[in-house]
Design a protein that fits this description.
The complex is a heterodimer of chains A (300) and B (316).
Chain A (H helix, E strand, L loop, with lengths): L16 H10 L12 E5 L3 H17 L3 E5 L3 H14 L13 E4 L9 H11 L5 E6 L9 H17 L2 E6 L7 H10 L3 E4 L2 E5 L3 E8 L4 H14 L3 E12 L1 H16 L3 E5 L3 H9 L8 E4 L6
Parallel strand pairs in A: 1-5, 1-6, 2-3, 2-4, 4-5, 8-9, 9-10, 10-11
Antiparallel strand pairs in A: 7-8
Chain B lengths: L5 E7 L2 H17 L3 E6 L2 H11 L6 E4 L8 H15 L5 E6 L8 H17 L6 E7 L5 H10 L2 E4 L2 E4 L6 H11 L10 E5 L5 H14 L4 H21 L4 E7 L3 E8 L22 H9 L2 E5 L6 E7 L5
Parallel strand pairs in B: 1-5, 1-6, 2-3, 2-4, 4-5
Antiparallel strand pairs in B: 6-7, 8-9, 9-10, 10-12, 11-12
Helix pairs in contact in B: 1-2, 4-5, 4-6, 7-8, 8-9
Classes of the chains: A alpha/beta (300), B alpha/beta (316).
Amino acid sequence: MTTPACWKQSSIGSPLEGRWKRSVLGDDSSSGPLGSDGHVLLLPASESERRARVVEWVRRGLERSEKVIYAEFDAGSAQPWLSNALGESGVDITAPGARGRLVVLPPAEFYAPGEQVDVVERALGEGYPAVRVAAEVSTASGRLAEGTYQAYEREVEKLCRTRPVSALCQYDRKATLGSQLAEAAAIHYDGVRDTLLQTSATVNGVALAGQVDASNARLLDAALRVAAASCAASLELDVAGLAFLDAAGCRVLLRVADELRARRARLVVVSPQPPVVRTLSVLELDRVPHIEVRERGPGP
Amino acid sequence: MTGGFRHQAVLYGSVDELATAVTPLLHDTLSLRDSTVLVVTSSANAEAMRGELGELADHLEWLDPASGNSSPAVRFDTLLRSLADRSDGNRRAHIVHEEAPGEDYPGKLREYLRYEAVTNVVFAAFRTPVLCLWDRRRYSQGVLDAVRRTHPELVQDGHPARSPSYAEPEHYLAESARTLELASPEMTEVWHELTALTALAGLRQSLQHWARGWGMGAEPSEDLVTAAHEVAANGLEHGAAPVWVRAWREREGLVCEVGDGGSGPIDPLAGYRRPAAGQARGRGLWLARQLADLVEVSTHPPGTRIRLHFAHRPGT
């Protein structure tokens, strides 16, 4: 994991720490094998999935004693569903000590230029070790003009790079296609989250968890395009968490490998699970000269 | 015999007849420099041929037929690989093979004959003669007719002659799909209707549960899931939605069938050819064919259906 050390600060003795400890220990898998931090793109297939992912994200922040900021266009209705959903998952945000931890902001107070920096600095000034943002960014509703959302994303990306900030940006899956998908995947350097797939940046490349199939191969392509353009001699694709890879996904890997070959670099597929090994082998990706499949073994 | 692709069949009625037909051809090949003859046949036939060929037999390379469990697709690819390993700019291999299943496996036999047709497309790239041995005593007239339709040349008394009923591979395959009537199962255990690629994950999950539930091992279950997924994905991307998938059990194993509302022409060679390195598409059906034990394509009304058969392989 590449989470900078400053984000891993232990929580400052909070009264809520014990309360959430159990869920941290018992339920850590719910946050996925990948670090949830950084600038992450969420492409949910449905409203219920969006809400579930947001709850997971918010809850993880609360468990880490971070300040959590939630921004939704319809901020009035956001407060009740989020509180209820958190309550259902055992997190009482009205409990003493929890107050002020989670803030739901209306659009005017969060999306306007310069607002994000202010909000983050204010929270850090209050003594929180980190700030976690979950914001609806989708332009599908037309509520964020194109220029505004791009400026917003650049600002948030800068914050994620320079301050202890994690941001989950929610896009409408159906409306985010083509060049917009590529653009969105490119700016969310730390990963994308699809219904089936999570990507996250690692030291030497990208880690994948979940499943790659024809429904999200384009998303993978967009995410890997950025990583391939910026890697050195090889791009390491850690697929230990990948349970399924289909022919459409293999096509993406072949394209990425071609792009890498042009730059005299290569693709290293690390720790594939048996079903993925099978597909790679039948489709002979393991025989492509500029692709190396490194099966699980004693690490360096 | 000079270099170049030839696809010939010997329809023999006795071991003597086989030896008479094959010996002169092999003499020709072995007189060429840098030539290998690969013989793939049952051990019983290999024994008989050895006897008939005498010293010549020592110059042949005898390969065991691919494992009895493997599908026609895997057998075909294994042979192709054996050939590729022995062919380069100068060396050439001559293939003599006899691996067809008997008529007690009609589905596999039909598929084997389709691969005989595909041979005319795929092996042509190797400029290699392929000689197929068919025992007339084992097969009915219909099967022997199909052998004549899938081989451009027939060998009689050691002399090759053009097969008058030879059909172009695309034509043979399209006709095979058009005329194949698939009996419907009595009961379907899994049924999915898909309209979008995002529904594929649910299909995979339910097929996985189903296959494991019938005691299939982890790996064979994954093969079934991947193969059915690829065919369904292909239908969603190139066919007419909605795509439906149904699955049921048969005596020998599990069956998945994928269909769509379309009845238009499909590429008869889809999935039969190993995808080239730089090829953008066409990997999904190849993958499905390699993973399933048998694939049957029917374009017979009411619509296009692709049926995948999987032998029951319990977990270890």
